[in-house]
Amino acid sequence: MISYAFVAQLLGLSSASGTRAGLSLLAVAVASHDGYVSLPPELQWMALPGAMAAFAVILIFEMITVRDEDMHSLLGLVQYGLSAGSGALAVMGSLNVETQQLPEWAVGGGGALLAVATLGLRRRVHNEFVGLESHVFHPVKWLNRFQEGGVLGLCVAVFMAPALALVLVVLMAAAGVAAALVAHRMEARLFRRPCPSCGASIRVEASRCAHCRAEVPVAKPLELGVGSR
Question: Measuring CA to CA, how many Å separate 219 from each of 31, 167, 214, 223?
Answer without folding.
Answer: 55, 45, 15, 12
